[in-house]
Design goal:
8-stranded antiparallel beta sheet; 674 residues; 10-stranded mixed beta sheet; alpha+beta
């Protein structure tokens, strides 16, 4: 990223701003705005729980001063109960959070330096509540930029996928368990810091327990899912994600379902802002944001809407790797979505592989009962690219799966959108799941996963109801995979892999399942083919070089550690995946503040024992200034019997080395067809 120091406007920065809510609670904010006596400017809000004073301070310093230097007042506000904000944070996207956001927007609009018009932007949590606020239509809100977010909190978020419980549900719950245990900074809130901290320790709760009690798509998940009524959004939307991120599907749905001015952008990136994008190439995303805000918050007659509605990075074939510095490819554009250029091509699944469209398929059947180790090379549901967390060579996972290979391609194939696998099948258990994967198989046999999909086979179409499967009964399902833009070169093959487990990316069913797929024409792979003839294609304009303002000064007195280790013991047949994400110790020069973060995740299974899967996560958070030091240690363990989930968790808090708080949770939650 090119660091920009000369901007059109000088910047005034205000720290320690406290924004009053109607119930008396005050929310902590940091504001950057043009340092000028000229006319007021629009305000842009990012509203998240990740501590603007430290945890996101470096990232924020590359974004908000840049936008302020281009004529906007930018406010980075901590949610109630996070950072230096008062109150207690008890869950995601609660009604209280959304009301607070409305009040913050009204406060910003009323400031003398604000024109009365506001926007919202953010990645992940901030992208979620930007969409949610757009649907609530506060008077001042004129446009949003939502990154790595979703319109559907149940079917397409970190908790469940296709009705299957994700391993990331535990991982994310543990992250927020740790973050909600953190104290405010005494230098900001004064002597009240200890009282505020104790309220958080006692009141934030164990979110994993809540999320596990909603295993179907009910009103809990419908709240905050703007997909319930996209017509409620009446302002322009820019939706952004990456193919390595967990949230790219929402971009397609928003482009299709919204009726307002909208732009979609999907690059090769993981869960990151595109100007910091990994895998690369990163792009000049902040320049795109300035053009977007100029058009919709200032009424500038610029060319931002002359770009294709959807711009995506068409990825070229690469060998399997858990991390890439860059993904080769090119930008392609579609004038609308669904695109008139993309058509669906159906390939029957046959005993000898993936057949050509229209081929006669001899009646046959193929069965699989996948071992619990299938999925250990799947990577994370949502990649952060640190530690390396992308899927590795799929051949070992394919060994416990049904595999269907195509013939070698004789010409280049490009797909854009969501492939679908249709299955005609029977099972021998009342509760079952299926994982389908599409891989690019090179001439040397290496298999790179391109995309995948999960489906809980007991669920109805909208995941609001579940019903036992009848062993031996014939069923038909369509399993959509995540959308993708991918090119397959001549000489390569396509591979469809089907398994009945995918641990630890998804929690396995209560018992091993024998899945029998009938191969008589109904079972098929449907590809969203984008013709390689680009004679009628309007290519998107090239992006500028990524740039931002210089990050604030920090040092790292203690380096971090990263690990992603798969182990198997052939004595007791235990297999484990151990992940370490240790960010070391960061010292913030400007406030004399030291922060340490370390997370360890261990996922284990034993042989073919479907009662053995267990996930254990441990977080350590430490804050220090001079002789003042606070540390919290959180530990969460999730296991299950065929009938129940068992959650055991502990929270220990230390001040100056002395333990000052200790809490324990032991809960049992019935499994509901999961």
């Amino acid at each position: 990223m090119r660091q920009v120091t000369a901007l059109p406007n000088k910047i005034a920065e205000e720290r320690g701003v406290m924004i009053p809510m109607s119930d008396g609670t005050r929310l902590a904010a940091r504001i950057w705005r043009p340092d000028s006596e000229e006319e007021p400017v629009p305000a842009i809000l990012e509203f998240i729980p990740y501590r603007q004073r430290d945890l996101t301070a470096q990232r924020d310093s590359t974004i908000h001063p840049y936008l302020a230097g281009h004529g906007y007042a930018c406010a980075r506000v901590d949610l109630r109960g996070s950072g230096d904000s008062e109150g207690v944070l008890q869950d995601e996207y609660l009604e209280q959070e959304l009301r607070d956001a409305e009040e913050v927007l009204a406060w910003l609009a009323a400031q003398p330096w604000c024109s009365g018009t506001t926007g919202m932007m953010g990645i992940s949590w901030g992208g979620f509540n930007a969409l949610q606020l757009a649907a609530r239509r506060p008077a001042s809100l004129g446009a949003i930029v939502t990154l790595c977010s979703t319109d559907d909190r149940y079917a397409d978020d970190v908790h469940y996928m296709g009705g299957c419980l994700l391993g990331d549900n535990l991982s994310w719950a543990s992250t927020m368990f740790a973050y909600t245990s953190c104290p405010p900074d005494p230098a900001v809130v004064g002597e009240r810091w200890r009282e505020m901290w104790r309220r958080r320790l006692e009141g934030s709760g164990l979110w994993l327990d809540t999320w596990l009690r909603h295993q179907l798509r009910d009103d809990y998940w419908r709240h905050g899912s703007v997909r319930e009524d996209l017509s409620a959004i009446e302002i322009p939307v820019m939706a952004v994600s990456g193919w390595a991120d967990g949230y790219s599907n929402a971009v397609f749905r928003l482009m299709e379902g919204l009726s307002v001015p909208r732009l979609g952008l999907i690059g090769p990136w993981s869960h990151k802002y595109p100007h910091l994008g990994e895998p690369g190439p990163a792009i000049g995303f902040l320049q795109q944001c300035v053009r977007w805000w100029d058009r919709w918050l200032k009424g500038a007659d610029n060319d931002v809407m002359r770009e294709p509605m959807l711009r995506s990075w068409m990825q070229e074939s690469v060998p399997p790797s858990t991390a890439y510095s860059e993904r080769p490819g090119r930008w392609v554009g579609e004038p609308r979505w669904p695109s008139p250029r993309v058509y669906r091509r159906t390939h029957p699944l046959a005993q000898d592989g993936i057949a050509d469209p229209g081929a006669d398929v001899a009646t046959a059947a193929a069965s699989v009962e996948s071992p619990l180790t299938v999925g250990q090379y799947a990577g994370k549901w949502c990649s952060y690219n640190a530690p390396p967390d992308l899927p590795y060579d799929q051949r070992e996972d394919d060994g416990g799966s049904l595999v269907f290979d195509s013939d070698e391609l004789t010409e280049r194939l490009e797909i854009l959108g969501a492939p679908v696998v249709n299955l005609e099948f029977t099972v021998d258990r009342p509760v079952a799941m299926v994982c389908v994967r599409l891989s690019d198989v090179a001439p040397d046999g290496r298999a790179t996963r391109v995309t995948y999909g999960l489906l809980n086979l007991t669920h109805s179409g909208d995941h609001a109801e579940a019903e036992d499967l009848a062993p031996g009964r014939l069923y038909n399902v369509a399993v959509p995979m995540n959308g993708v833009a991918q090119a397959f070169p001549p000489g390569h093959r396509l591979r469809v892999s089907v398994s009945t487990s995918y641990w630890p990316l998804a929690w396995p069913p209560p018992q091993p399942v024998l899945l029998t797929v009938l191969l008589q024409g109904e079972s098929s792979l449907v590809l969203p083919v984008r013709p390689t003839d680009s004679s009628d294609e309007v290519a998107p304009q090239p992006f500028d070089e990524p740039e931002g303002t210089p990050p604030l000064d920090t040092s790292r007195p203690v380096p971090g550690e990263q690990q992603w280790k798969v182990e198997r013991d052939l004595v007791d047949y235990q297999s484990s995946l151990k992940v370490i994400k240790d960010l070391g110790t960061v010292y913030f020069d400007d406030i004399g503040w030291e922060v340490s973060r370390r997370a360890e995740e261990v996922y284990t299974v034993r042989g073919d024992d479907f009662t053995s899967p267990k996930g254990v996560t441990t977080w350590r958070m430490r804050f220090k200034r001079g002789d003042w030091e606070v540390e919290t240690v959180t530990r969460t363990e999730l296991s299950a019997t065929p009938e129940e989930f068992h959650v055991n968790a502990t929270l220990d808090a230390y001040e100056g080395g002395d333990r000052v708080a200790a809490r324990t949770w032991n809960t049992v939650i019935p499994r509901d067809h999961v």
